[in-house]
Amino acid sequence: MQRRQFLTNAGISAVTSATLVSCQSQDKSSVTANSLPEIKWRMVTSWPKSLDTIFGGAQLVCDRLKEMSGGKFTITPYAAGEIVPGLEVLDTVQNGTVECGHTASYYYIGKNPVLAFATSVPFGLTAEQQNAWLYHGGGLEAMQKVYSEFNIINFPAGNTGAQMGGWFKKEIKSLGDLKGLKMRIPGLGGEVMAKLGVNVQVLPGGEIFLALDRGAIDAAEWVGPYDDEKLGLNKAAQYYYYPGWWEPGPTLDVLVNKSAWEKLPLEYQSMFMAAAKEANVNMLSQYNFLNQQSLATLITGGTKLVVYPQDIITEAQKIATAIYDDNSTKDPNFKAIYEQWKTFKKGIIKWNTINELSYANFMASSS
Ligand code: CA
Question: Residue 82 — φ and ψ, nearest 5°?
């Protein structure tokens, strides 16, 4: 204040004084940047590099950090299998073999079923609703509390948007057609399908095409048009079902070893969180852009789009709710998060029915 007054009194123009202030703050920031340490981390992931969308989320976090830190904080991302298999990301970050990882939290529901909420659950939230719950509705805070038991801190760093409901070699007309059908579907969606009579198979992404093509399985789900076409699933099955009711808006997380996180300068922590948030927004918009193009290509190529029969989807929802209720009875921590999430879901569905759905319905019927 005093210095400002002095400058004004000295008759220096506002433009000049602004220049002085800006030069001074530039000096200050470069001094701070120079004092920041050089840090090199490794990031394991659950993805093959060929899936540029989902692996791209991990890559973006690393690229941005390098840029923001002037090359001082660098993280190298690794594909699934390069350091550890894709489903061992949590363990590897927990034990500190690597400092961080990019994965889907629902791969680890065997360790704690509540981790499913960090990603997506059957009949759960859409991507936008999920972000609202995580960032503002207490969701991320709750999930970080769960992850702290694994000496991990997690940040959302990607979302695929609503997924598709899988590829079927034969048309499924009602609940009865699911009995004994062999389908590749992991997680809670698989648990629900198993209760509907499906013979559930869990295969990594790279093995789905051959199994479906050779008839070792009758159906398979992966992500959506862009990624599914990359795996060639449209060449192995003709019927493409929607909606993917088990994954309406799955979040991918970047997991950081908590001891490593706490040693980071605050500036790097802040850059890390900004990079993760950017990856979260970017992946969703990228999938939405690419999927609508790929779906059109698939349909031109002979893919038949089919909506899930009502009796299947209604029964699946009943079963999913029964699973959540059962988990709540067994585990008070699951119950606490589930109840809070349920209240949030009720409110946001009410609001989104008014603002988003009414508009989407109008636009769909008028075009
Ligand atoms: Ca999926």
Answer: -70, -45
Residue indicated by tokens 């070699």? 169
Q: Write the CB contacts of 24 (distance below 8 Å, at least 6 apart in sequence).
A: none
- What is the Å distance from ligand 1's center to 8 Cα? 63
**Which of 69, 276, 65, 6 minimizes the C-alpha distance to 156?**
276
pLDDT in tens, 82-139: 999 999 999 999 999 999 999 999 999 999 999 999 999 999 999 999 999 999 999 9
pLDDT, tens digit (0-9, with 9 covering 90-100), for 300-326: 999 999 999 999 999 999 999 999 999
For residue 284, give both structure tokens.
């969703």
User: What gap in Å lies between CA 184 and CA 204, rounded to an integer?
Assistant: 9
Closest CA to 141 of 357, 356, 344: 344
Residues whose beta carbons lie less than 5 angstroms from ion ligand 1: 163, 247
Sheet holding 73-78, edge to edge: 73-78, 39-45, 100-103, 251-257, 152-159
Ligand 1 centroid to Cα of residue 361, in Å, is: 26
Residue with tokens 């709750």: 142
Span from the CA of 122 to the centroid of ligand 1 (angstroms): 11
Residues 6+ apart with CB under 8 A from 265: 36, 37
120 closest CA partner among 222, 247, 215: 247
The secondary structure element, H or E, covering residue 75 is strand 73-78
Half-sphere exposure at residue 149, Cβ-oriented, CA atoms within 13 angstroms: 9
Instruction: Tell how far the Cα of 223 is from the centroid of ligand 1, in angstroms.
Output: 4
- Rounded distance from Cα 120 to ligand 1 centre (Å): 10
Amino acid at 186: P
Tell how far the Cα of 126 is from the centroid of ligand 1, in angstroms: 14
Identity of the amino acid at 14: A
pTM of the model: 0.88
**From ligand 1's centre to the CA of 98, what distance in Å?**
26
Distance from C-alpha of 94 to C-alpha of 108, rounded to nearest angstrom = 12
Amino acid at 160: T
Between CA 195 and CA 28 the distance in angstroms is: 62
Structure confidence by residue, pLDDT tens digits, 1-54: 444 443 444 444 444 444 444 444 444 444 455 689 999 999 999 998 988 999
Q: How far is CA 30 from the centre of its chain?
A: 35
